[in-house]
């Protein structure tokens, strides 16, 4: 290639890919594919159960916040709450 662009080079562009991303022959399933799918299904069920735990905790949190807003909370420190006060009592 001429760095100054004096030569003209003709190039042709292919109208298709070299590999069309299709398998050449049909593939066979692996011997343990059924067991693998069963393991994936169990993992999916476990994730769904964990999701319910998160939803339940979120509902419990919302309920606690609502209760605190409705009833209010006492923010005054109680004697013996801190570690230094507990040590002084002993």
Fold topology:
Layout: H1 33-71, H2 83-89
Question: Which labels suit this protein?
Answer:
90 residues; mainly alpha; 0% strand; elongated
The proportion of strand residues reads: under 5%
N-to-C order of helices and strands: HH
Number of strands: 0
What are the low-pLDDT stretches, counting only 5+ consecutive residues below 50? none
* Helical content (DSSP H or I, runs of 4+): 40-55%
Q: What separation lies between the terminal Cα atoms?
A: 90 Å
Question: Shape, please?
Answer: elongated
Gyration radius, in Å: 34 Å
Largest sheet: none
Counting H and I runs of at least 4 residues, what is the number of helices? Answer: 2
Mean pLDDT: 77
SS class: mainly alpha
How would you characterize the overall build of this protein?
By secondary structure, the chain is an all-alpha fold. The protein has a domain at 32-69. The protein is built from two helices and no strands. The N and C termini lie far apart (90 Å). The mean pLDDT is 77. Residues 30-57 form a coiled coil. Pfam families: CCDC32. Keywords: Coiled coil.
Summarize the entry for a quick read.
With 90 residues, the chain is mainly α.
């Amino acid at each position: 290639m001429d760095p100054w662009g004096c030569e003209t080079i003709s190039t042709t562009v292919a109208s298709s890919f070299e590999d069309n991303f299709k398998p050449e022959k049909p593939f066979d399933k692996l011997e343990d594919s059924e067991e693998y799918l069963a393991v994936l299904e169990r993992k999916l069920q476990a994730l769904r159960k964990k999701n319910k735990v998160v939803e339940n905790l979120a509902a419990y949190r919302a309920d606690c916040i609502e209760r605190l807003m409705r009833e209010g909370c006492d923010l005054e420190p109680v004697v013996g709450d801190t570690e230094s006060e507990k040590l002084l009592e002993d």
